[in-house]
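Morning run. Coffee first, then this:
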Amino acid sequence: SDKNGGYDVSNDADVITFLRHPVARATSQFYHSQTLSWAKHLRFVNQTFEEYLDDKNDKWMQPLEDGDSGADFLAGIFPTESEVESDHKETELKVLLRKNKTAACLFAASRLEQTTWFGILEDVERSMELLQVSLGLKTKPVFIKSNYGRNTKGNGSTKLTEDIVEKIGSYIPKDLWLYQYATRLLDARWNY
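And here it is:
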């Protein structure tokens, strides 16, 4: 660890990560956040995700923050004052990448390509087989936790219409682009 108690990741670190479809992540975060004590006085606690999307007065937009599903993590461009642990260094590159979504996506994609392994939650079987091969494991790892959306608090199903999925997607274009790229990269690694 470094002097601040964080991790000092050198250039030769083996990076592994798991990606989840950004719309599924946003939906899950929304319904999970309804169960947390800090949210009990906020309007979204008694809304469905669809109602929340149509509520122009709700100021809590975290489930719809573009970059939270991977693009900003992989690009390393969360603001230094955010709740996400960072290197605490504000650089011109980070500022530029925050302003230029295309450049941020390409930078995140480049970093994804350099990972030792990444998986796709919606493609667990192939992801775990690739993890086994990538790390030279004798047996295939088992992904034991599945999120079935049990925390909807009676607000209805987490099944979303295509219109709602498209609406959510309009908030998170970087993350959708990175996820689509990642699925193609996973296919390429699988076929290699």
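The two ends are 35 Å apart (CA to CA). Good start to the day.
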